[in-house]
Design a protein that fits this description.
single chain; mainly alpha; Trypsin Inhibitor V, Chain A; three-stranded mixed beta sheet; 6 helices
């Protein structure tokens, strides 16, 4: 019994020591959290500015001009002239082609269209891009650096007299490279006033096939997906009606793609009907 108070005091002392150590540890951890460095916010000159170049869409059919602008990161709006029907021709644009602008998201390019009298204007014109436009802002010119002081050039030493060289055999002329097959797309028929097929773009059958592949990986009919699908439909149909290379083949593929869209999205019947009517028209013109 005489040892019980001593044992109790020893245990109390141990508990007190442990409590002090635990409190010190928590206090140290809290101080470390409170004094941790805050994230640095990058502002001003550290932010890089991306510059994009306005493409040239003058002379293009409106349906193709829209695609070129969208592919290059621009929004668009029909400003003056004819309304935004697919076959109408772009005769003016602002900013001008080649203008360098800051990539603000979707800088606005305004278009002036001219009526293409060879095609009827049916339905509702599409005068604005399906996504909101952003401001057009020109990049700030870099400050000119002062020119280095001109240093006098040493006097030129006279060149030694040239020694006559032995006659050499003239170099053989290089045979021009063969033109790639896709660069020789003869039109199926000629439509007066229709623009020529842009050879830098893929042929119509390839575009229709690619749309089918794209559709198989985009199962939701979101507004963006539907807009892309409608735009590709309009490109193939309009190009085929212009008489572009293998338009009938492209339309047959497109009709199958539109059927897939009906199955996947529940829409596409109207586009399939338009493609079918265009196919009948193209076949009749090609005879």
């Amino acid at each position: 019994m005489g040892t019980w108070p001593s044992a109790l005091l020893s245990r109390v002392a141990v508990i007190v020591v442990l409590g002090v150590l635990t409190t010190a540890t928590l206090t140290w951890a809290a101080e470390k959290q409170l004094t941790a460095p805050k994230p640095v916010k990058v502002t001003g000159a550290a932010v890089q500015t991306t510059v994009i170049v306005v493409p040239d869409v003058q002379g293009q059919a409106y349906v193709f001009a829209k695609g070129i602008l969208e592919d290059n990161g621009f929004a668009w709006r029909v400003d003056t002239g004819a309304a935004g029907y697919a076959a109408n021709t772009v005769v003016g644009q602002s900013p001008a082609a080649g203008t360098r602008v800051v990539d603000t998201g979707a800088p606005l390019v305004t278009l002036t269209l001219k009526r293409n009298g060879h095609y009827a204007e049916k339905g509702t014109p599409d005068n604005v891009s399906p996504f909101p436009a952003t401001e057009v802002r020109l990049p700030v010119a870099a400050a000119a650096t002062p020119a280095a002081a001109a240093t006098p050039k040493p006097a030129a030493t006279p060149a030694p007299a040239a020694t006559p060289k032995a006659a050499t055999k003239p170099a053989a002329t290089t045979k021009p490279a063969a033109t790639p097959k896709h660069q020789r797309r003869a039109p199926d028929f000629v439509v007066p006033g229709a623009p020529k097929e842009p050879l830098k773009e893929m042929p119509l059958p390839d575009r229709a096939r690619l749309l089918g592949v794209w559709l198989s990986t985009h199962r939701a009919n979101t507004p963006a997906n539907v807009q892309h699908w409608l735009y590709q439909n309009a490109w193939v149909v309009t190009g085929a009606r212009f008489g572009w290379w293998h338009g009938a083949e492209a339309l047959k593929i497109l009709i199958q793609v539109d059927r897939k869209a009906q199955s996947a999205w529940g829409i596409g019947g109207r586009s399939k009907s338009v493609a079918s009517a265009a196919l009948a028209e193209v076949r009749a013109r090609a005879k």
